[in-house]
Structures are given as C-alpha cells and as structure tokens.
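re: ur question from earlier - yeah i can do the single chain one, its not a big deal. heres the input i used so u can compare w yours
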Amino acid sequence: MTTDALISPDVTGGQGLWSRLMSGKTGPVLVIVMAIIAIWYFSAVMLNSPFQKEIYKRNSVEWTTSQLISDTLSQERPVLPAPDQVVVELYKTTILKRVTSKRSLVYHSWITLSTTLLGFIIGTVLGILLAVGIVHNRSLDKSLMPWIISSQTIPILAIAPMIIVVLNAIGIQGILPKAFIATYLSFFPITVGIVKGLRSPEVIHLDLMRTYNASNWDLFWKLRWPSSVPYLFTGMKVAIATSLVGAIVGELPTGAVEGLGARLLAGSYYGQTIQIWSALIAAALLAAGLVSLVGISNKIVLKKMGMAQ
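and the output i got, formated as tokens:
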C-alpha cells in the first residue's frame, strides 16, 4: 500500500467534513465571522501603528514590518485592541474571577440583566395594554398612537438624565429608574407588533364570529389574541435587545459602579480600551442569548397553539 493511499482517506475525509460544514447553515456564518476577524486584525494594525512608530522613534529603535505588526497587536492601551486581547480579557474577567467580585464581568452582566428583564417585563405589559386600548378605542388610536411614535424620535441619551433626576426627586432610586429607561425603549416594538397582530384577522373571520353571536370579549380571546401571538414574539425579540440598550444607557448618567454600562464608563475614564471592548462583547453575547431565549419560547408557544411552521 502506497503512502498516498494511506493519507488520502484522511485528506478526503477532512475535505468532506469542511464541505459539509460550509454547505450547511453554519457555513455562511463562519465565513462572515472569519471576515470580521480578519478586518478587525487589519484595522487594529492600521490604527495602532502610528503610536507604535512614535515609540520606536522616541527610543531610536530600528523596526521591521513583522515586529511592528506584533507590537501593535500587543499594546497595553491600544486604540483598537486585537481580538485575542479581548478574548484574554474576557477569560480573565469571567473564568478567573469569582462571580461575586466587582471585577467580574459575570457580576456586572447580572446587574445589567436584572435591570433589562425588569424593564422588559414592564414594557411588555405596558405595550400590550396600550395596543389593546388602541385597537378597541378609536379615540385612543387617533390621539395616542401618534404620540407613541413621536416618543421614539427623542434620543435616549437626552431623556435618560431627565428620567433619573425626576424619579430621584420623588424618591424612586435604585434599579427602577434604570428599568424605566429600558421600558421606554422596549414598549414601542411590543405596542406596534400587538396592534398589527390584533388587526390581522380577516373581515370574513370577524363576520363569522359575529354570526355566532360572539361578544367583543370572545372576539378578543378566540380570534384576535391568538392571531397576535406571532407578532407579539417578533416585537419581544426587538424589545429585549432594546431593553438591554436602555439598561446600559441608564447606568451612564447615574454614575453607577455596577453593571456593563459602569464598566464601559470606567474604561473610558482610564483609557482602558480592552476593558471597553470586553464589556461590549459581553453585552452583545448577553443580547444574543436573550433574543435566542425569546425565539425558543416563541417556537414552544406556537407549537402548543398548533401554529408552528
């Protein structure tokens, strides 16, 4: 048996595995991730190299291209940290730190998560109540809906300090002010989605229910509400992500020392860009996890209702 015959099955198997991997659902995702990482490394070298060249110039160091690339990717306070620096920082602040440590990203993520969930729950309940009122009351539809839409044109960074100051003036402190900011961002997609869902039943279906002498209550629970559930979960996916943004923004004007927003603020104060990026990645992973949980809940609920696709 020749050497080529011995190694060819492994090579073929490896190529086959790679082909199956790239042809599946994960293939496009892997390509995008690898492209992002490559662009990230290239950008890190380009942005960090001017400062590194200045260091060489001050110290009269003769440098090569490979040395420049290596040094720009290992700076303590880079303009743009390399992906491996962010990964190492995430490892140090999650695995190597106790969960109760104030330097643990798990601890700060939990603080932000609690605010996010509270704001999301309040926003969901508020959004559903507003949507039901808008659909069943023409006056609310004409008067309230334009204000709901226009409220989202106000930048959250402008209104967050006002919310904090007003609530502190009436004695509301702690997690609630930050949760209200998260609510402000999260109720809108819920409201719009539910309004669309409650109005989604066709006229012929509504007329059929009325021929059975169905009341408005029956129309709501047996026709309008089941039809609105897919729209509700679509709005919830957006709302849970915007609620996380609101929770992080709410931590900035309060001067909080806990939470991902506080971590970002501390990193900006002391020029710790690696800390900033690790907190950003942690927030992105947290958002992805929350959206995935809502998606899983969506599939379970629709399957129970016999509406799963």
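Residues 1-12 have pLDDT under 50 and may be disordered. not sure if urs matches, ping me
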